[in-house]
Amino acid sequence: MTNLTANGIAVDYELTGPADAPVVTLSHSLATDFHMWRLQQPALVAAGYRVLRYDTRGHGGTDAPPGPYSLELLADDVVALLRALGIERTHFVGISMGGMIGQTLALSHPALIASLVLCDTAASLPPEAGPIWDERIEIARTSGMWAHVEGTIERWFTPAFAAARPDVVEPIRGAIGSTPVEGYAGCVEAIKGLDLLERIFAIAAPTLVMVGAQDPGTTPDAARAIQERIPGAGLVVIESASHLSNLEQPEVFNRALLDFLGRTSS
Predict the structure, then answer these.
(1) Each residue's pLDDT tens digit, 13-50
(2) By residue range, what is the domain housing residue 196?
(3) pLDDT tens readout for residues 61-90
(4) DSSP alpha helices (H): ranges in 24-165?
(5) Which CATH number does the domain housing residue 76 bear?
(6) Mean pLDDT of the chain
(7) Are 12 and 1 in contact (CB under 8 A)?
(8) Are 213 and 239 in contact (CB under 8 A)?
(9) C-alpha span between 243 and 251 (Å, rounded)
(10) How many domains does one find in the chain?
(11) 122 to each of 52, 97, 186, 196, 219, how far by Cα in Å?
């Protein structure tokens, strides 16, 4: 891991792969860190890409200043990081919150985005979701992030996978529990403001949407709503996977990702 100042905060990141290769930026979900991409980074480097993994504001080793944050702020953090690293253009892969950041970035800084991969994410949230997120902030502030761990794991992995693969699930459990409360609350406020569904038709970058077939939060229907609005976007529904489809079905996920990047990088 390396640390630099971008957009006024210290950002932890890792940049691996050939120096002259196309860059792929990986943006993680709420309440995790860049290590959630550990099953994608080696495959991308082996395929000849330079891979940037970073911890979002309020997560991992990146600063967690008091919120609220906004998706625009989180996108500006990415822009500042890319500029500090001298990266003028990148493929951007975001899962869940990372996909929301990716949509915002593709709309605000289209010249930066060579292609866009939106995984297990949404472009808008229904009004009734607001109180649920408010309650989650309150739980984090009063009981700590460990109070969120078990319920989150149940939403993020299918029961069979969670039981069979503790080697994959336990690091995510630890990441959730160790997420700074201020960072979690700040990013939840950003997510609550998600309202991009009627704007994403303007995204011009080649786009792939991926979703776990059993994702209960950012559902296949939410993925189809994105795919239908972004011109030319593709859709991959990953069977036997819930919210963190990149970890539950990494071979299927990586194959679809590399096939898409191969077509858009040529």
Answers:
(1) 999 999 999 999 999 999 999 999 999 999 999 999 99
(2) 2-265
(3) 999 999 999 999 999 999 999 999 999 999
(4) 41-46, 71-84, 97-108, 129-143, 149-156, 159-164
(5) 3.40.50.1820
(6) 97
(7) yes
(8) yes
(9) 16
(10) 1
(11) 23, 9, 18, 9, 8
